[in-house]
Design goal:
- The protein is 39% helix and 18% strand.
- It has 9 helices and 12 strands.
- Helix 1 packs across helix 2, helix 5 runs parallel beside helix 8 and helix 7 runs antiparallel to helix 8.
- The protein is α/β, with parallel strands linked by helices.
- The protein has a single domain, classed as LigB-like (Protocatechuate 4,5-dioxygenase, Chain B, 3-Layer(aba) Sandwich).
- 54% of the residues are buried.
- Strands 2, 3, 4, 7, 8, 9, 10, 11 and 12 form a 9-stranded mixed beta sheet that branches. Strands 1-5-6 form a 3-stranded mixed beta sheet, covered by helices on one side.
- A hairpin with a 2-residue loop joins strand 5 and strand 6.
Length: 292
């Protein structure tokens, strides 16, 4: 069986079993403060993918919220940001398993095969090997939903991302015997000199604009479930590194009947640094947790 090895364990999160478990439960505990007013059913979620020190609590909040609503998830379809993948079509990791410090997670090869056959996606394991956007979510799934399988899909911010999401939604609707939840992994505005993006100037005023204007507009489009506009805003305003993943997610869950998103939380790396370490920076990366 082909096994995808972790590439950011020991960097974005602990690479040891005990360390990873401790971090996971800390993230889950910290994320509990974001959970409120949950719907009766959850078909999808948006999670950030930075190091767990910065965004793990929001990721933990989303997965914990799903657990509170439905204990028995068969499969998570994870739409990931494509940081290095230059392909024009979504890339599916369609067989084998993914290794995490807390255990293996099996690929739902049946559902993955249906997604490849029923959409514009391609089967490509190799392009997933160095990407972190999906990897950092998999230990949460292994710990909170130990029997669940996954279908990892890298979704570039291409014109076909929305149509792909619609097709995935239809495919999931066609297997009602499976309880499937879709996840999009994306951070928001990367602001500051390091990222070459300072339209509102350097320093705290610019960071404030990044959160209160640029991030907020992207989040509003997600809450309004406007998949096409999300894709455009992410690309034109540099408001999300995973705009394709989020657009596909919104299109998929809309096809599945979701209509009342809940914003669990919105923060950025500079706020986390001030809160945890009493230090500030001239740069920031935005994070949001949303359920559908």
């Amino acid at each position: 069986m082909e096994i995808r090895k972790p590439v950011v364990a020991g960097q974005f999160y602990s690479g040891s079993n005990s360390g990873c478990l401790a971090e996971l439960h800390q993230c889950i505990d910290d994320g509990g403060s974001f959970i409120h007013d949950l719907p009766h059913s959850i078909t999808g979620g948006i999670v950030p993918h930075a190091g767990w020190t910065f965004s793990g609590d929001l990721a933990g909040a989303v997965f914990s919220a799903i657990k509170r609503v439905d204990h028995d998830i068969d499969t998570f379809v994870i739409f990931g940001a494509a940081h290095c993948y230059m392909g024009k079509k979504p890339a599916v990791y369609d067989h084998g398993s993914w290794e995490t410090p807390v255990g293996l997670v099996e690929i739902d090869s049946d559902l993955a095969g249906e997604i490849v056959a029923g959409s514009a996606a391609v089967s490509d394991q190799e392009v997933h090997c160095g990407e972190h956007s999906i990897e950092v979510q998999v230990p949460f799934i292994r710990e909170i939903f130990p029997d669940a399988k996954i279908v990892p899909v890298m979704v570039p911010p291409c014109n076909g991302a929305v149509e792909f999401g619609v097709n995935v939604g239809k495919i999931i609707a066609g297997v009602p015997e499976k309880r499937v939840v879709c996840i999009a992994s994306s951070d928001l505005t990367h602001y500051g000199p390091r990222y070459g993006f300072c339209p509102a100037g350097a320093g705290q005023d610019g960071i404030r604009w990044a959160k209160e204007v640029n991030d907020a507009e992207f989040i509003e489009l997600a809450m309004e479930m406007k998949a096409d506009e999300l894709l455009v805003h992410g690309e034109e305003n540099t408001s999300a590194c995973g705009a394709g993943a989020v657009a596909a997610l919104v299109a998929a869950v809309k096809e599945l009947g979701a209509d009342a998103p809940v914003l669990l939380g919105h923060t950025h790396s500079n706020e986390v640094m001030v809160h945890k370490y009493g230090q500030s920076s001239d740069e920031s990366v935005g994070y949001a947790g949303i359920i559908f």
